[in-house]
Design a protein that fits this description.
About 50% of the residues lie in helices and about 15% in strands. The protein is of the alpha/beta class.
């Protein structure tokens, strides 16, 4: 049985041991996402400086591929706008982020990554920073459209209003909405289907059951961050396999699991299992 975690990080705590735990629990496929520049000891002053981050991450994904089937998602965390902005100014930070997204697109074209990451801050920021973040996110839509890949979004907490706003931006950029993935999504499967954006549901509590009760248009993720200061956060690497097996145990059928862990993933990311 194929079990896929749609969003995980391996950084400097368990590292590949997290992938081994995922496998032992029944996990088979995972999408690994790079973290912030500070996590890699990089202080970017230009987009090209993200090359070191992307290369380190892709190398880790290649090593993870010796254990399970792992895919690289690369890009720029939206919190970079404040991290970089405090050093080089917010407008310059936005320009660096957009250049880095262009670079990420090239890695996708070369087959070294299958998706890019962007979004906007999940915390309160000034109007200037918010507007610049939306510019960066819109550019990410354009890059993903041009290289024909999925885009994982890290954004503010879900509301129907803000997800509709993001969908309108995506439509303006002419990217296919099902290729826009709301990372850390709640189990509001019906609302996401109506809007068009694809939910990667955080496998917290009974979210997996709530989602499966509504439909099968979703994926599951742990957002495991592999931070020694927060071991097990956000959710441990064994969580998705355990939740998927629970769905089967309580009466959901294998067709649902295949849709969530295989067919949806193949469609969104353009991969073949």
């Amino acid at each position: 049985m194929i079990i896929t975690d749609d969003h995980m990080h391996i950084y400097k705590h368990l590292r590949l041991k997290a992938i081994e735990e995922f496998k032992r629990a029944g996990g088979t496929h995972v999408f690994l996402v790079n973290l912030l520049s500070k996590n890699y000891g990089v202080n970017p002053k230009r987009g090209e400086d993200f090359k070191e981050i992307f290369e380190k991450h892709i190398k880790m994904v290649e090593e993870a591929n010796e254990i399970v089937t792992a895919y690289a998602v690369i890009g720029v965390h939206p919190a970079e706008i404040t991290i970089l902005g405090e050093r080089i100014g917010y407008r310059k930070a936005a320009e660096v982020m957009m250049d880095a997204l262009d670079l990420a697109g090239k890695y996708v074209e070369e087959g070294k990554a299958v998706a890019i990451k962007s979004g906007r801050p999940h915390y309160s920021v000034s109007r200037e920073v918010w507007d610049l973040s939306n510019e960066v996110m819109f550019h990410a839509f354009e890059v993903a459209r041009d290289v024909n890949c999925a885009l994982q979004l890290h954004t503010e907490s879900y509301s129907r209003k803000n997800i509709e706003e993001i969908a309108e931006m995506a439509k303006k950029a002419k990217i296919k909405l099902y290729r826009v993935v709301k990372h850390f999504a709640p189990p509001k499967i019906d609302e996401f289907e109506e809007v068009g954006i694809f939910p990667s549901v955080i496998a917290m509590g009974d979210n997996h059951i709530k989602a499966a009760t509504i439909g099968d248009r979703f994926t599951l993720e742990t957002d495991y961050i592999d931070d020694p200061a927060r071991p097990g956060a956000v959710l441990g690497p064994k969580t998705v396999p355990k939740k998927v097996k629970e769905l089967l145990r309580i009466g959901f059928d294998e067709k649902l699991v295949e849709k969530v862990c295989v067919k949806n993933v193949e469609k969104v990311y353009g991969v073949e299992f």
